[in-house]
Amino acid sequence: MTRTITKRTYDSSSRRRAAEATRLSILDAARRMFLEKGYAATTMPAIAQAAGIALDTVYAAVGKKPSLFRLLIETAISGSERAVPAEERDYVRAIREETHADQKLRIYAAALRSIQMRLAPLIRVLEGAAPHDPDLRKLWQGIARRRARNMRLLAQNLAATGRLRSDLSVGKTADIIWSMNSPEFYLLLVGQRGWSPKEFERWLGDAWIRLLLKS
């Protein structure tokens, strides 16, 4: 009886590892192809071939193409192999635990640099495809709304330190951060003007501190 239980546990663990390896292979192949070819020109059979995995297995593991692209976006935002809710991300916890407003903004600027290095290229693909695909249009709009909600939470957190400028409401503070943390803003400076990601991080932290906080 003991041997049977051990074998089943081992087999179950092996299957989970194999399934996760398959999923990661699909995500890796899909990301490469979306960035190289764009959304419309990338097909699920092509992704399956690039990953070396049967097409039926691809659908079973990640769903149809819009679901796959959404998963790529979510994992890029989370910085992990799985989508992680905002409140569970390490940098969000660090911001909440930090007592100084300027350090909160620097923590967020550093986190944003890492996020945008993964996310911004995918957003460029999404931005081009969204006008022609209702599913992607909803994804695009949902990301913007979620960012706005999260930035309001950050603005409230900053306001609680007593360091916000007196002429800035929580709403205006959230809007300013929202406009500057966008993938489009990152792509303008890093993608088009040739800034390094590290330069972008330092400048963004400094800019937020000067714009939002009392001197």
Q: Descriptors for this entry?
A:
single chain; mainly alpha; 77% helix; Arc Repressor Mutant, subunit A; 2 domains; 215 residues; Tetracycline Repressor, domain 2
Can you describe what's shown?
It is elongated and about 60 Å long. It has helices spanning 2-37, 44-51, 55-62, 65-78, 90-97, 101-129, 134-159, 170-180, 183-192, 197-212. The termini are far apart. 77% of the residues lie in helices and 0% in strands. The model has no long low-confidence stretch (mean pLDDT 89). The protein has two domains: 1-63, Homeodomain-like (Arc Repressor Mutant, subunit A, Orthogonal Bundle); 64-215, Tetracycline Repressor, domain 2 (Orthogonal Bundle), CATH 1.10.357. It has 215 residues and is mostly helical. The chain has ten helices and no strands.
